[in-house]
Design goal:
Order of helices and strands of chain A: HEHEEHEHHEHEHEHHEEHHH
Number of strands of chain A: 9
CATH class of the domain at 25-78 in chain B: Alpha Beta
Strand order of the largest sheet of chain A: 3-1-4-5-7-6-8-9
Largest interface: A-B, 38 and 32 residues
Number of domains of chain A: 1
Number of strands of chain B: 3
CATH class of chain A: Alpha Beta
CATH architecture of chain A: 3-Layer(aba) Sandwich
Strand content of chain B: 15-25%
Strand content of chain A: 15-25%
Radius of gyration of chain B: 16 Å
Oligomer: heterodimer
Structural class of chain B: alpha+beta
Shape of chain A: globular
Radius of gyration of chain A: 18 Å
Largest sheet of chain B: 2 strands, antiparallel
Distance between the termini of chain A: 31 Å
Chain lengths: 293, 80
């Protein structure tokens, strides 16, 4: 395991909510990436938490761009850096709204072009920046300001969409496992070509749980199998540490749901559908690890 | 060429002294502390240093450090 540097690239402090896991993720992503990095940030929480002009808490270059264009901007930027022989890391740091809904065409294009960059989607499962509206990444049964009685549709399977583009490296991570997250970002940046990471980011005000539970909620997501930590190198799947245990023995999905206020309106049926979904997903991954499909 | 661009400069306290957001502040009991580093590792804002001193100018009082401490060496105390 690599030693995590003490140097911080996010100055004290961003204006993120207390207990924000996007802040925590940003801390580790920048630690792993180091000084020679440019962040491309489309509209998302990260574009508003940087501080008040003319000051910023970000001690590395950040380029704030329009919602739909993050991956397209990163493509151009990466090409320009490589053309002058620079190895600068180009990282898109986008929320779930800017990835699964609005930014997906730019992401698809950049992956297809083989852009040398890392796309990070930190997923808090709604448009939290604007006050918690439903996004394509909101799970079934979760209430948001636009789905007050709980979402009736499934969460979009972003990882399957990205996987279909065959990126050189893709991984999932969670803010509750920062060392795993750090190692994955480090590994991703050591490989040339298009890389993608999907990071679960529990959100205290949006998911309606007390701010001190951020780490616990993230761990419950992994322990219940609602979130599976894995990485794919050139398509080859390997399940990461914390999720290996969850593949064998899981806590009930309801344990994860009951700590969050957003699932208060979820019906018994919603919970059983989610549990079934988790079982199916894990079975599918298990078969893939064993090389059956 | 001196075109005016909207470029922000890095600065500590770019969002003001966020410590004023707190209603409860975390206090470390160094006698109980086993220096595992969990509080430093999990602080979302990096307000705890490697010697486990908390920067109260910027700590937002989220309470994550209290939850992740295996020795229960950190407690939340109401602000005056």
């Amino acid at each position: 395991m690599a030693e995590i540097p003490d140097e911080e690239f996010i100055l004290k402090t961003t204006s993120a909510c207390a207990g924000c896991s996007a802040s925590l993720i940003l801390r580790y992503v920048t630690k792993a990436a180091g000084k020679d990095t440019v962040l491309v940030v489309p509209a998302c929480c990260t574009s508003v938490i940087q501080g008040v002009y003319p000051n910023t808490a970000m001690n590395i270059p950040v380029y704030n761009v329009a919602f739909a264009s993050a991956a397209a901007v990163a493509s151009g930027m990466s090409e320009a850096f490589r053309a002058v022989g620079k190895k600068t890391n180009v990282i898109c740091f986008a929320g779930d709204g800017g990835t699964v809904d609005i930014g997906i065409q730019a992401l698809s294009g950049a992956l297809e072009r083989g852009t040398d960059f890392l796309y990070i989607c930190y997923d808090n499962e709604a448009y939290s920046n604007t006050g918690m509206q439903r996004s394509g990444a909101t799970p079934l049964g979760a209430s948001t300001t636009t789905t007050p009685l709980g979402k009736k549709d499934y969460k979009k399977d972003l990882d399957a969409i990205v996987q279909a583009h065959n990126p050189v490296y893709m991984a999932t991570a969670c803010s509750a496992y920062p060392v795993d997250l750090y190692n994955k970002v480090k590994k991703a940046l050591s490989i040339p070509g298009p890389k993608f990471m999907h990071i679960l980011a529990p959100c205290p005000p949006g998911w309606r749980y007390p701010s001190e539970k951020t780490i616990e909620v993230g761990k419950l997501a992994v322990q219940s199998g609602m979130w599976v930590l894995y990485e794919r190198e050139n398509g080859k799947l390997s399940i990461s540490g914390a999720s290996k245990a969850a593949m064998k023995k899981r806590i009930p999905v309801s344990e994860y749901l009951k700590v969050q206020g957003r699932f208060k309106t979820a019906t018994e049926e919603d919970i059983s559908v989610l549990s079934e979904h988790v079982e199916n997903n894990i079975k599918k991954l298990e078969r893939e690890v064993e090389g059956i499909c | 060429m001196s075109a005016k661009l909207a470029i922000s400069k890095p600065k500590t306290g770019a969002s003001g002294k966020t410590g004023s957001w707190r209603t409860f502040k975390p206090v470390v009991d160094m006698d109980k502390c086993n220096k595992c580093g969990n509080c430093y590792r999990f602080c979302p804002d990096g307000t705890i240093d490697t010697e486990f001193n908390i920067d109260y100018d910027y700590c937002k009082g989220c309470g994550i450090c209290v939850e992740v401490c295996p020795k229960k060496a950190i407690t939340m105390v109401r602000e005056d």
